[in-house]
Design a protein that fits this description.
Layout (H helix, E strand, L loop, with lengths): L3 H8 L10 H14 L12 H8 L3 H13 L3 E4 L3 E4 L63 H13 L3 H4 L8 H15 L8 E4 L2 H12 L5 E6 L3 H8 L4 E8 L2 E2 L1 H7 L5 E4 L13 H14 L2 E5 L15 H4 L5 E6 L11 E4 L2 H14 L5 H12 L2 H28 L4 E2 L7 E5 L6 H10 L5 E2 L12 E5 L5 H17 L5
Parallel strand pairs: 4-5, 4-7, 7-8, 8-9
Antiparallel strand pairs: 1-2, 3-10, 5-6, 9-10, 11-12, 12-14, 13-14
Helix pairs in contact: 2-4, 5-14, 7-14, 8-9, 8-13, 15-17
The structure holds pyridoxal-5'-phosphate.
Length: about 500
Amino acid sequence: MKSPAGLLLSGVELDRTSTTPLYRQLYLQIRKQILTGRLQGGTRLPSTRTLSKELELSRITILNAFDQLTAEGFLASRSGAGTYVDSEWDSRAIAENGIQQQPPRLSTMSQSLLSMRSNHFQGISYADWNPASPTSFLPSHSTYESFPQNTWKRLMNRHLQKPSKAMLGYGELQGLQELRKAIADYVFDSRGIDCTSEQVVIVSGAQQAFNLLGMLLLNPQDTVWMEDPGHIAARIAFQAHGCQIVPLRIDAQGIDIEQGLRECPDARLVFTTPSRQHPLGTTLSYTRRLELIDWAARNHSWIIEDDCDSEFRYSGRPLPALCAMDQWDRVIYVGTFSKVLYPSLRLGYVILPPALVEPMCTIRAVMDRSPPTLLQAVTADFMREGHFLGHIRRMRTLYQARQEALLEQLQKNLGDFITVAPVDAGMHLIAWLPPSLNADTVAKELSLHNIHTYALSDYCLQPYLPPALLIGFAGVPQDQAEERVAALVLALRKMGHDV
Ligand SMILES: Cc1ncc(COP(=O)(O)O)c(C=O)c1O
């Protein structure tokens, strides 16, 4: 076994070129050895003279480090007997080989050490959320460069220059009143929803709303109708509460309610994206909307309406939100600023039947209280002072132009390989592939050529749809459409496809 002195000396590495003083480097390294159990309580340290010789340091440097470690309780001096690691660190046993047995690291933990709930999150990739990774055709990515930075900065500075007590405190649990009022006005004008600001709860993005609503409304084993294909992260949020998912197909009118009634008529909740089915793009027909509300009212079931990007509708008749048609307080409406402003803002909102507001806020209080008041205040000003609607108008025109440019290039250069049609709403196209191909394999191979898309199958629970890729257009400037499609064609050729 190595002597403690040897252990200490072999563990110390000093960087004489660093701006961190040598005494502090020594202090940090000895402290780390004690904290990790490499040097255990009661171990006598080498004398300052020995250390000074071995480490080629002045004794003053060593004494400075020792003084600080002693003051913080890591070391203790016994008069005439030298300096020891304080006995408080006794319990940290060193194994025979001189290296303390470390607790298992998470990467080597077996799933049995994690909760059963965490199983549901397996397989979710967070690699796409690396801001440095290229986005080429990824859906859901907007035009960050067109965001009105100067206006935003001006509004932000206005609050920063004289931060009020309210701005720095915990903030209203339900969300900033001014923002809730601005949202209530906005959804009335744009989505036909007649609600008061008292029914609005501000959340950290729609995804948080889905998690909170799962907690609020679902018991283990409850059944949930989910659109298939559908929004993956919402499904997982509900599954994590132990509920059973009932996947319902999408046809030309939207979610197949007949299938739901056949397979699970008394589901507790349905999650739907009526204004633009995610990801297929269908609009839920008027008849189906009435049927869905009627079923929920009779069955005392809940409807979660995810309306994440209804602002980006280019053609077709916009129908009012499902929430606007609900007379029975069954629909919970979820909106977000992620698509229309920017995702890292982490601001979304829920419009609840009045009876659900208080229980929702109670859960909110335990989860994380409310999003930063400053950002809520800036967003409220942005809306109230007219910038919001102007920004939406500009983005809608821009995205429509981008869609046209990309569609033209795709049809011109890949028209014999894929089938792609314009979409009425949203930020991506669906490119249907030859039926013999596996979309997942194609998407993975394309990513090796730095072309990023998602396979439609990623969103599917049952394999009933032909293979397809989601091709985002909102993040593809018109003048880059030709070049990006050329790169796509080249990659497909390299992958052996006849295009
Ligand atoms: C269909 C759909 N709903 C909701 C969201 C959630 O957005 P956020 O949590 O950023 O508000 C997304 C995000 O991409 C989405 O695609």
